[in-house]
User: Fold this.
Amino acid sequence: MTSGLTMNLLLHICCANCAIYPIMVLREKNYRLTGYFFNPNIHPYMEFSRRLETLKDYAAREDLQVIIREEYLLDEFLASVAPDPGNRCDICYFSRLEQTARHAAENGFDAFSTTLLYSRYQQHEKIRRFGEDLAERYGISFFYEDFRQGWRKGIDLSKAMGHYRQQYCGCVYSERDRYLPRPTAK
Assistant:
């Protein structure tokens, strides 16, 4: 650990918008942060590119080092979820957290976490459980904090910064659900 900094943390970042509030909180705790962009679930490629460019702009503005996995792994993501689309969120959470935990353990970080803990739309307890299980597997700490209390603040700040604001989590299923007509109550 660097003097004055309490923890060297690798933070999985799903998008710039979800990173704003967690990064504020973690920097207030004086943690040494490195972002980690690994999101094979994002579809289509133009959406992936737009989110990545927004993150790069945000990281430059905030002087945040980010490790970027730019490979577009949609085929691998779809192959992993196709046998059980109903379990897609678990597969998606686990795969992104596993890559983050592995990278953190292999590169001398004290802990890892994720900006997925910011969104009120994600399955928070599953994310926490997967993070804790992976921490044990890789011999590294999982930093847990419920960042959802900053939901509105993060939205307001991202709008003020002029960020591109996506309207779905990123996967093709989420995009489908966004446009699919909902059954009407009888």
Observations:
- The radius of gyration is 16 Å.
- The beta strands are 8-12, 32-37, 66-68, 111-114, 141-142.
